[in-house]
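Colleagues,

For the teaching module next term, I've prepared a clean inverse folding example: a structure given as tokens, and then the sequence designed for it. I'd like students to try predicting residues themselves before seeing the answer, so please don't circulate the second half yet.
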């Protein structure tokens, strides 16, 4: 049977609709960010279906675990990773891991231990980790993309999938652009408006700010980044603060294929990445933006509240805490005996809450 004029026209229209469109550079970024957003929220990108990136990094908790779990559970029941889900907000500003020869310290990198040097590389981990989204390979992930309701949009930007490695790289690029967008990086806290001269701190908040500058800003840097011009409250350095081992971490009882050492497993942090025992037990300084929403705290989720965390930083050396997981590399002096009063701790807490996005100008 020959095709009618209308059939031919319909085919041509459909064919044209899935070709790459011509976008301005700004429009192209916007389209890729939107694709990245849909990928980020897609529960079909796990094996089996049911787990999106938001299971461990939800908007309501500043893209950290929405249930405030010690560590997040993967798509397979009873499968857990070993560390607390960090907030992804503002994570895109991290520089690559590099040894600072002058200061004699490591800085930068993604994850708590800095094992990834780019946001794109960091994104590849959860998709294929059996304790997270459990995809077998890139081909499985790309096949899921081709079944997605937003595949037409993907084709209008990247073209039809021809090479699965290229398609996978496109997916990672789109998610990275989403994570680097204003969706995750609002800079809309009271502190941001304070810097602009559009907000005034309360007496307690101002007292907390001054205490923070004096006691906390060495690691939680308040100097704007050279490249971004943003204040991110981290030096991207690595420190062992003497955090106790968290016996409630379900990683110790997870499947042996994930943790063959069981309860005897030790988290060496940066030391395992750079193969240097002097770096054992050191973890990257997190940004404090939105910190009031991202409990529990530290790499193993040991402290359930921000108040308990600040108190620990102040009083670690008082002998009231359990034994640190690794003691040999604990840094003395910066934390542990700050001699802050309860009122001073509360003032710092008040200041930390000014770092939460969504503040409205009165």
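(Answer key — instructors only)
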């Amino acid at each position: 049977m020959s095709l009618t004029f209308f059939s031919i026209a319909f085919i041509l229209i459909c064919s044209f609709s899935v070709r790459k469109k011509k976008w301005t550079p700004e429009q192209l970024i916007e389209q890729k960010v939107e694709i990245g957003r849909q990928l980020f929220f897609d529960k079909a990108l796990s094996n089996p279906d049911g787990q999106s990136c938001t299971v461990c990094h939800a908007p309501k908790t500043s893209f950290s675990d929405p249930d405030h779990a010690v560590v997040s559970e993967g798509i397979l029941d009873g499968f857990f990773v070993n560390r607390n889900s960090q907030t992804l907000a503002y994570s895109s500003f991290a520089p690559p891991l590099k040894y600072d020869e002058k200061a004699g310290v490591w800085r930068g990198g993604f994850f708590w231990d800095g094992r990834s040097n780019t946001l794109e590389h960091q994104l590849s981990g959860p998709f294929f980790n059996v304790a997270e989204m459990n995809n077998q390979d890139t081909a499985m992930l790309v096949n899921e993309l081709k079944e997605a309701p937003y595949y037409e949009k993907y084709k209008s930007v990247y073209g039809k999938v021809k090479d699965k490695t290229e398609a996978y790289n496109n997916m990672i690029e789109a998610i990275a652009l989403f994570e680097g967008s204003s969706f995750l990086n609002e800079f809309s806290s009271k502190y941001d408006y304070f810097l602009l001269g559009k907000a005034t701190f309360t007496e307690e908040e101002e007292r907390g700010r001054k205490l923070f500058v004096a006691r906390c800003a060495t690691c939680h840097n308040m100097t704007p980044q050279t490249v971004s011009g943003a204040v991110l409250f981290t030096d991207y350095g690595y420190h062992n603060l003497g955090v106790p081992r968290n016996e409630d971490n379900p990683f110790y009882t997870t499947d042996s294929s994930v943790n063959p050492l069981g309860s005897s497993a030790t988290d060496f942090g940066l030391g395992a990445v750079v193969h240097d025992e002097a770096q054992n037990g050191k973890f990257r300084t997190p940004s404090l933006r939105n910190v009031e929403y991202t409990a529990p705290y530290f790499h193993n989720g040991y402290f359930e509240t921000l108040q308990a965390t600040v108190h620990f930083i102040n009083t670690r050396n008082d002998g009231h805490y359990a034994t640190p997981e690794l003691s040999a590399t604990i840094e003395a002096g910066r934390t542990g005996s700050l001699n802050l009063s309860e009122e001073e701790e509360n003032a710092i807490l008040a200041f930390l809450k000014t770092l939460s996005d969504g503040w409205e100008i009165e």
